[in-house]
Amino acid sequence: MHQTFDAALEINLLHANQDGADHNRAHFEEWGIVCVNLMSSPGAGKTQLLERTLQALNPECKMAVIEGDMTTELDAERLRQYGVPVIAINTGRACHLDSKMVAGGIHSLSHEHDPASLDLVWVENVGNLVCPAEFEVGEHAKVALLSVTEGEDKPLKYPIMFREADCLIITKTDLTPYLEIDLERIKANVRQVNPQVPIFAVSTKTLEGFEGWLQWVRQLIVQKGVCV
Amino acid sequence: MHETDMTRALILTLQDWWESQPEPPTISKVHLTVGNFTCVEPASLQFAFTVQTQNTFLAGAELVIRETPLIAFCHPCQKEYKPDIGVQYACPDCQSPMEDIRSGRELKINRLEYALLGQPQIQETL
After folding, report:
1. Which of A117, A180, A221, B84 is the most buried (most CB within 10 A)?
2. Domains of chain B
3. Residues on chain B touching A8 (C-beta within 8 angstroms)
């Protein structure tokens, strides 16, 4: 037998990821960039929200996208038509982006473009309501999306994502007439776990409610003191 | 199974510690605290850890997981309560939303037990 030693670590299990996230954030801040992490289940409308947002805020705000996708570049190609730099990160079988993958994205971004000219970097996470909530990537704000077709109970079933969100977008509200869904019920369920979170009910088709979301983004940028 | 990625994150964190040691220790036990209000399922974590540590510096190490319940604190009632995960998080008495979490969000590596194979000392502690 050998002597057994005891090392008290008392550190977070995700310490290595957290270190990487802090490192990424330091890069963003050095360049005067605000980073927003977009998260939702697959098909909630992250890419569509981004398309409309890029359209609305470009060129008022200089943006780039770091796009996480399990196998394809489809989403990245959709976003490139809006004239902003899009870095695709192929996550392979990983079900979320971690800080190391995003560091790779930042590296590409800083080589292919001038990062100091940017105001805002969107990180579109892999569609998943579970893991992305626990893995920080260096963002200044987490935005969670929930489409009306997913049901009212999702905030109760996947509470961590909704607890961690700094902003919640309820998407596809143009579909509500066809569904038995109560928007107020969704909001109440979100508020159970995150009472103060700003909630925007948005249709990217009719653009109803969209201005409120854009105002939130503008305010975030002003708060961080980088763009006009 | 997202515990695969959680385990990889755990291994990376442990590797940082392991590489910082003057001589490579043999880790026998890893003590974790995993809260019930996290995205981690302890049984899946155990399984993933066993599989993913094969042929690594952690091969054969045992994962000891202490689970902590979700406990929230209701300010209007000035008392703690246990939310019913998946069903209701608001205070059962006054329906105030869950603001403060006192327990359940832990994802922590508390301590490691390890041996230094260079050491001839025979002693069983812990």
Report:
1. A221
2. 1-69+104-126 (3.30.2320.50), 70-101 (no CATH)
3. 110-111
ipTM: 0.83
Which pTM was predicted? 0.90
- Distance between CA atoms of residues A190 and A169, nearest Å: 11
Contact A131/B39, CB-based, under 8 Å?
yes
For A15-223, the fitting CATH number among 3.30.230.80, 3.40.50.300, 3.40.50.720, 3.10.50.30 is: 3.40.50.300
Q: Do B86 and A157 touch (CB under 8 A)?
A: yes
Q: Are A133 and A160 in contact (CB under 8 A)?
A: yes
- pLDDT confidence of residue A51: 97
Contacts (Cβ under 8 Å, ≥6 apart) of A159: A193, B37, B85, B86, B89
